[in-house]
Write a sequence for this structure.
């Protein structure tokens, strides 16, 4: 009967209760979104890194993969040496650079030169994989930009002089497949081709130089390494850096740590906003339950007078807080997921972000924990008004109510 | 003569109180408090015995301390000094939990403003003290007893009605049924006709008379002269003290419960 009284007291002022529940739901949604944001980017980045399945990334000293246009020379010898290393199971050399596709108005695209057998940079969506030196895979954005289809042969150049309207290092490549480039934005035009093919193309800055040697020859942007089972990754990383001072070696853990540092502000912001959400939910419930108790102070005094125990009054009032926060949190779960999806759509459109990068990650356990925290806050929010209700002086309250 | 009073099942273990035996004994009760920093001596050394089967009206001018005294007798306030014994138990020395339990099962309260729970039906209002006391044990039994009590106060057809659907007199009848729910030793009423029109007030007095005829011990604080005339004993208060105590009618004797039809509580 006490539970019914608690629920009845909430339905007595329906619009007020509905507004409070809506407020708690918004607070819960914000809390959920902040929790999702706090871990979303990190986990999304981890997903990308781990999806590639490599343990180490070797880059020119002091750079991050594709952070700059820096490359390292002597690529073939370096790869051969690494492949001979007993601790290394697999080596995937990669060269990144700009190319120009089609004529008469060449379209710039990011090109990845790789070894198709060990590549981890794109996922084939249509057609087939690269099998020969004069074949390539492009993404949908590039295909749309140049109006090409799988099966077409297109002209791809390593450089383009817009004043002279002249391309350099051009090759005819067969378009054999369409791929999704996991680390690139969806609208970023991209093409993958064999490493040697890209290395053979002349860069624009060097096109006018005295030598016609392609400056990409034998150069690499990053080398992905998969260690053999049981190998200490950190020890291997240290050794590789020591053996070749031109290189920086970045482990997956270090990459995640690096990402964590960069996302520190985001997480702090998310933590602060999540705390504010909890506080707002707490205050909303406290306010409503306090107002509700004040309105029923005479009824509560009468209940105490006719013998209803303090504990029952406390339970009744706290049940109101629990009901408000539980309903608000449940609605907030749906609202939070909707807003997270909407915000993710907005943030994902940020230029240069990988297509599949998610800012908000829904983890059921985290969601349940955070919403349970809000519900607990709602219950705690009922303590003060409940205690007030349970300890009110019965005789004085009844006298004051009679006078009122 | 073996008679019964309405205290069947007081606290579930209260002794049966023979008619005429003391139900309530207040000795030198004082209640002082401060209002705006000024000391107020609301009750000044009141001593009062109420016996089973009595109907006592406490009358006096406003502010004379009669409602404060009623609160003290009903264990919803504590005396500054003195003792109050109800059904053999010193309520002034009970802690809050004990006093609450004692109010639940030993005392029935009727208030001037009815104070029914507006979100509960009439029957549920009557069930409330029974549910709190878990007497009777099952909901069905409690519902049956609530209906029985509503029938006693003439409202068996209104069990499903919410308080706002009832007139003032009907609400007060429900409040009386609620007060009787756990078979209290003592029924305390504070201005029970104060919010009612004259005709309804007269009906209410008749109900109190019937309750008393059926063995219920009643102490009522009232300004209503008709109510005071209907009581069997009138206690006059002034300035926090009893100035007169007059038995105006002999106590009703209810033999063996045969004539008593106040529904008994399931102790």
């Amino acid at each position: 009967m006490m539970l019914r009284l608690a629920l009845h007291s909430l339905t007595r002022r329906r619009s007020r209760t509905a507004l409070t529940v809506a407020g708690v739901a918004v607070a819960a949604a914000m809390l959920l979104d902040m929790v999702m944001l706090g871990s979303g980017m990190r986990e999304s980045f981890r997903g990308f890194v781990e999806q590639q399945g490599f343990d180490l990334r070797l880059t020119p000293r002091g750079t991050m993969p594709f952070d700059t246009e820096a490359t390292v020379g002597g690529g073939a010898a370096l790869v051969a040496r690494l492949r001979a290393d007993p601790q290394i199971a697999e080596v995937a050399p990669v060269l990144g650079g700009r190319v120009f596709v089609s004529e008469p108005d060449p379209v710039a695209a990011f090109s990845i030169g790789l070894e198709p057998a060990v590549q981890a940079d794109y996922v084939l969506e249509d057609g087939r994989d690269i099998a020969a030196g004069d074949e390539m895979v492009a993404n949908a954005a590039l295909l749309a930009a140049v109006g090409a289809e799988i099966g077409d042969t297109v002209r791809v150049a390593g450089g383009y002089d817009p004043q002279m309207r002249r391309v350099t290092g051009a090759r005819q490549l067969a378009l054999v497949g369409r791929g999704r480039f996991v680390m690139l934005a969806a609208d970023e035009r991209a093409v993958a081709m064999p490493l040697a093919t890209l290395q053979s193309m002349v860069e624009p800055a060097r096109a006018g130089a005295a030598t016609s040697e392609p400056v990409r020859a034998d150069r690499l942007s990053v080398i992905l390494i998969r260690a053999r089972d049981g190998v200490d990754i950190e020890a291997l990383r240290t050794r590789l850096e020591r053996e070749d001072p031109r290189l920086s070696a970045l482990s997956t853990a270090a990459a995640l740590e690096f990402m964590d540092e960069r996302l520190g502000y985001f997480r702090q912001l998310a933590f602060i906003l999540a705390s504010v959400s909890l506080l707002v939910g707490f205050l909303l419930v406290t306010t409503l339950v306090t107002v509700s108790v004040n309105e029923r102070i005479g009824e509560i005094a009468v209940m105490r007078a006719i013998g209803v125990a303090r504990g029952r009054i406390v339970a009744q009032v706290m049940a109101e807080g629990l009901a408000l926060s539980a309903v608000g949190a449940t609605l907030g779960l749906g609202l939070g997921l909707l807003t997270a999806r909407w915000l993710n759509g907005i943030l994902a459109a940020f230029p240069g972000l990988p297509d599949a990068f998610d800012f908000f990650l829904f983890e059921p356990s985290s969601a349940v924990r955070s919403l349970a925290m809000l519900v607990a806050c709602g219950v705690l929010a009922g303590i003060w008004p409940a205690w007030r209700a349970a300890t009110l002086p019965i005789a004085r309250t009844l006298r004051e109510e009679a006078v009122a | 003569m073996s008679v019964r009073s309405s205290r069947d099942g007081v606290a579930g273990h209260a002794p049966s109180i023979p008619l005429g035996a003391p139900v309530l004994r207040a000795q030198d009760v004082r209640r002082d408090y401060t209002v705006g920093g000024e000391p107020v001596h609301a009750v000044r050394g009141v001593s009062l015995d109420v016996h089973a089967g009595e109907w006592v009206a406490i009358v006096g001018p406003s502010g004379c301390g009669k409602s404060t005294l009623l609160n003290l007798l009903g264990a919803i306030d504590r005396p500054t000094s003195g003792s109050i014994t109800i059904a053999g138990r010193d309520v002034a020395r009970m802690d809050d939990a004990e006093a609450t339990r004692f109010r639940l099962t030993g005392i029935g309260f009727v208030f001037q403003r009815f104070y029914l729970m507006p979100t509960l039906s009439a029957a549920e209002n009557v069930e409330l003290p029974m549910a709190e006391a878990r007497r009777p044990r099952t909901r069905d039994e409690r519902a049956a007893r609530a209906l029985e009590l509503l029938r006693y106060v003439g409202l068996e057809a209104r069990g499903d009605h919410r308080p706002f659907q009832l007139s003032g007199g009907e609400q007060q009848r429900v409040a009386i049924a609620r007060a009787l729910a756990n078979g209290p030793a003592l029924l305390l009423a504070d201005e029970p006709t104060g919010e009612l029109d004259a005709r309804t007030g007269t009906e209410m007095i008749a109900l109190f008379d019937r309750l008393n005829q059926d063995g219920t011990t009643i102490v009522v604080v009232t300004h209503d002269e008709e109510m005071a005339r209907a009581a069997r004993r009138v206690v006059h208060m002034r300035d926090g003290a009893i100035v007169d105590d007059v038995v105006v009618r002999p106590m009703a004797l209810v033999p063996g419960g045969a004539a008593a039809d106040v529904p008994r509580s399931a102790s």
